[in-house]
Recover the amino acids of this structure.
């Protein structure tokens, strides 16, 4: 077998998406999102998508770059995926080695990578000197058969969609930045400029604005639940949050319930979400909706040069 690692080409998008779906079937991944990520990444991210090609077939990829929105310099990421039927061929090792070499050349001192909580993946990461950091719990809801609660609105609360903010999405930007800053994680987040948020979040090809629900109180955005879809019946909760001034009023649950109702009416049959292992409020909300554990991921980190 001839195995090479090279840069992504536009013609690789379908194969990269298929490999990601094979390894992580719960993710919303399409050829359009793969190509868009490469084309739209901000220069400061130093984003580079590497692919592994075995005998002319793309069997895996590694998305690499630096956390340009972190307040700590030198932090980078390398998330590697290999098609399920190509594991054990050396493609993963070749991709990770190439990614680490590239990031070291950018001056990165730490590399973060997501790994499935299964023996083979964990052993692979730890053999290469990665240490375990935080966990993420991916959960699944049978949306077609779920017993969703009715969409009852408390007094003074209005439900809208992201599409209603098409003329001026800045209130959603401000809400997203505030809620993301409060999320638990191992990389400190600094909110992006508005123009960058528009390009990376608002214009994301998987964002479904009609299914993204926003709870409004007295004209102000109070909570929201972001919907990403893939056109294959899969729905992913991109982010659910409540602004600090409106917390402990059940508004996140209200927004997510509305979004799930909209998604089911639009033909989505499976709903997935991922939560940091320490995000107890969202874990409780998703359990209340009937989400069940699907898989656990671990964030691993390696000190380059160590």
């Amino acid at each position: 077998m001839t195995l090479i690692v090279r840069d992504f080409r536009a013609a690789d998008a379908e194969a990269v998406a298929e490999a990601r779906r094979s390894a992580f079937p719960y993710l919303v991944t399409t050829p359009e999102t793969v190509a868009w990520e490469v084309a739209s990444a901000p220069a400061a991210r130093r984003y580079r998508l590497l692919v592994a090609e075995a005998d002319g077939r793309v069997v895996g990829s590694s998305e690499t770059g630096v956390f340009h929105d972190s307040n700590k310099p030198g932090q980078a990421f390398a998330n590697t995926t290999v098609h399920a039927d190509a594991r054990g061929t050396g493609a993963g090792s070749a991709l990770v080695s190439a990614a680490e070499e590239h990031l070291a050349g950018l001056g990165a001192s730490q590399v973060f990578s997501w790994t499935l909580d299964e023996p083979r993946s964990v052993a692979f990461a730890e053999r290469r000197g990665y240490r375990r950091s935080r966990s993420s719990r991916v959960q699944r809801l049978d949306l077609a058969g779920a017993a969703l609660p009715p969409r009852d609105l408390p007094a003074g609360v209005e439900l809208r969609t992201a599409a209603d903010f098409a003329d001026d999405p800045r209130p959603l930007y401000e809400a997203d930045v505030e809620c993301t800053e409060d999320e638990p994680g191992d990389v400190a987040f600094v909110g992006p400029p508005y123009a960058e948020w528009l390009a990376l979040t608002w214009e994301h090809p998987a964002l479904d604005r009609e299914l993204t629900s926003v709870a409004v109180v007295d004209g102000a955005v109070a909570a929201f639940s972001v919907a990403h879809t893939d056109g294959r019946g899969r729905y992913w909760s991109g982010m659910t949050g409540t602004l600090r001034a409106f917390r402990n009023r059940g508004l996140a649950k209200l927004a997510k319930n509305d979004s799930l109702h909209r998604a089911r009416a639009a033909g989505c049959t499976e709903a997935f979400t991922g939560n940091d292992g320490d995000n107890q409020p969202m874990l409780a909300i998703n359990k209340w909706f009937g989400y069940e554990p699907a898989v656990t991921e671990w964030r691993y980190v390696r000190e380059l040069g160590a």
